[in-house]
Amino acid sequence: MSAPSKSAPVLITGCSSGLGEATALLFREAGFLTIATARDPLKLKRLAAAGCETLPLDVTDEISQQAVVRDVTQRHGPVGVLINNAGYGQYGPLEEVSPELVRRAFETNVFGLLRMSQLVMPGMRRAGRGRIVNISSLAGRVTAQGGGVYHMTKYAVEALADAMRAEVKPFGVDLVNVLPGPFVSPYRDKVIGNIPDMGPDSPYRIYSRNVGAYMLHFLDPKTFGTMPLDKVARVVFKAGTTPRPRTRYNVGFWAHFGPVGRYLASDRVVDWWMSRKIPHDVERE
């Protein structure tokens, strides 16, 4: 495989803030034709000022997805690199996460990612080259209590990659997953806000608060293993541009060693340890 051409468009989803924004800036600064997208195009002003093209895109809407890929392809030719970054973090005890919220998480993290890949593939096949980079997560390899829905979606992204990677390889297309551990991002505050509040009578009232406290600590910039945003963005850029990419890039201490520890520990030990971190009966500070 060769490195993607700088003249072929780089299409990035979920660029309103955080990793998507940082990644778009890296591609643009390196001279790539960069198409930054988000549901709210008003949140893309910084990227537009930096020289990125910006387009509105809702990865859960078929019409929106088709319109963006068609527009980019008609004006610039086949997409050279697709960065599937758009994501949604749904946390909370599984009994209390509504079917609507579960569907929303899967529509964004799995179905939207797959559909964007399907839509760019015909152009990549015609060109005989292309790169699809999925922003997966440590959460697709190691499961923590309180994050069942999010983990389910990321495990699905991992399975999708293993199935699709060999399917598209004969057409000159690389498919790469990037699996970050915890890193500094606006995602931290969004996760807390997405935990369902079922009121004072909920049997998970204390537990849900502890899930939130645990995630705030886990993603705190001062916590061991939490990385700066730019470190992750640089790995995404590498995954999208290096001539011979790995199939997966684990980013950070926890992404490298967390799966090893989980493999070595029994389920009962992990359950006991996590129940100490996220108890049902005593609120964490």
Q: Helical amount among residues, as a percent range?
A: 40-55%
Task: Profile the largest sheet.
Answer: 7 strands, parallel
- The side-by-side strand order for the widest beta sheet comes to 3-2-1-4-5-6-7
Query: Which shape, going by the Cα principal axes?
Result: globular
CATH architecture: 3-Layer(aba) Sandwich
Write down the secondary-structure element order.
Answer: EHEHEHEHEHEHHHEHH
Count of runs of 4 or more consecutive helical residues: 10
CATH superfamily: NAD(P)-binding Rossmann-like Domain
Average pLDDT works out at 95
Question: What is the fold named in CATH at topology level?
Answer: Rossmann fold
User: Beta-strand level of the residues, as a percent range?
Assistant: 5-15%
Task: Count every beta strand, where a strand is a DSSP E run of 2 or more residues.
Answer: 7
What is the number of independent domains? 1
- Quaternary arrangement of the chains shown? single chain
Helix and strand composition category: alpha/beta
Q: What top-tier CATH class fits best?
A: Alpha Beta
- Please tell me how large the radius of gyration is: 19 Å
Distance from N terminus to C terminus (CA atoms, Å) equals 51 Å
Model regions low in confidence, pLDDT < 50 over at least 5 residues: none
